[in-house]
Design goal:
Blueprint lengths: L1 H27 L5 H10 L7 H11 L6 H13 L13 H36 L4 H15 L2 H15 L18 H39 L2 H8 L4 H23 L1 H6 L2 H6 L5 H10 L3 H29 L7
Helix pairs in contact: 1-14, 2-3, 5-6, 5-8, 5-14, 6-8, 7-8, 8-10, 10-14
Length: about 325
């Protein structure tokens, strides 16, 4: 296992090197350029230099006058030394801006993922064990509704009902108008109150796929020969389902769970935008739209690292949930 992990880590480093280069090339090819915006604004000032002169000066200042390969190795050399640069658009260090926004998205993503697991997987198992019953049809309808509902529509519906009609929650924002006058516990509860509707939106719009996936895999396992053998031996139905069948159903589900690690930190762009939450999803979108290469590079490479880590964890978990899988 140790040799396998070391090989996978070394391979991940190599993959990350080329992924970083591809991301850097894409960032350099963005249709919007922050440097061009700055050069255009400064060239329009009275008595200023021309746009071309400002472009040459700013490109040299930010290292954009180099080619793709030299520019990437220059960026990589700074990263190795722990220097991720300053955000062009937000005018603060990249790590500082990332730290200020990512934890809100992580809290939302983690809570919504937790509720997604405890709701979707049990409902998928129940639907599979009661195939073609009213329960199965009800669960299937709920799953299809969650898959089909557009995020912006469901979020707007929640805001209309619970914020406008009942006035239980605020329409947008992370804190209320009286936030500064509250006690520390009151401030925590105020933030929690503002996160209820966004988390409900994320859970409802994401659990449908996992519910259907669990049901499909559970049905496939329940029709296997060894399940019929277990029942023929006189084992209780509960032991057959939750000890034999469910453990084998976990194998494909582990793949999904391992792939959710980047999603916990990537943010939810549409949800954060609709509820005016300063999360990493909306922040990264703003940075890319403005041509902020330092922040966008850090964000994309960070997600690439999480993706490789999630795949490695999924491979290791295979051996945990399935005794037949062993890595030598």
């Amino acid at each position: 296992m140790r040799k396998y992990i070391i090989k996978r880590v070394l391979l991940s480093v190599l993959i990350l090197f080329f992924v970083g280069f591809i991301i850097y090339c894409l960032m350099r090819c963005l249709p919007t350029s922050y440097i061009e915006q700055m050069a255009r604004q400064r060239s329009m000032q009275p008595g200023s230099k021309s746009f071309e002169e400002w472009m040459a000066q700013l490109s040299a200042t930010y290292g954009m006058d180099k080619g793709l390969i030299l520019g990437y190795f220059g960026w990589l050399g700074n990263v190795v030394r722990g220097n991720f640069g300053d955000s062009w658009y937000f005018t603060v260090p990249v790590v500082e801006k990332f730290h200020d926004t990512v934890w809100l998205s992580f809290v939302m993503g983690f809570i919504s993922f937790f509720f997604e697991l405890i709701i979707a997987i049990p409902l998928g198992i129940i639907a599979a064990t009661k195939q073609y019953s009213k329960t199965d049809y009800t669960v299937s309808i709920i799953a299809l509704a969650g898959i089909s509902l557009p995020t912006f529509f469901f979020a707007s519906l929640l805001k209309l009902v619970f914020a406008v009609k009942f006035k239980w929650f605020d329409l947008y924002g992370l804190v209320g108008r009286m936030y500064d006058q509250l006690t520390p516990m009151g401030q925590l509860l105020d933030k929690a109150n503002h996160l209820v509707l966004p988390i409900v939106t994320l859970v409802v719009c994401s659990m449908g796929g996992l519910m259907r996936y669990t049901r499909t895999n559970m049905l496939e396992v329940l029709n296997a020969d060894y399940i019929r053998t277990a029942r023929a031996k006189g084992l209780s139905e509960r032991r057959v389902i939750y000890h034999h069948a469910f453990r084998n159903t976990l194998i494909p589900i582990v793949t999904i769970i391992g792939g959710t690690l980047p999603g916990l930190f990537s943010g939810a762009l549409i949800t954060e935008t609709l509820y005016s939450l300063p999360g990493i999803g909306f922040t990264s979108y703003t940075a890319m739209r403005s041509g902020d290469i330092p922040f966008s590079m850090f964000y994309m490479v960070f997600l690439a690292i999480l993706t490789l880590t999630g795949n490695l964890l999924a491979d290791i978990l295979y051996a945990v949930v399935d005794p037949r899988v062993r890595i030598s």
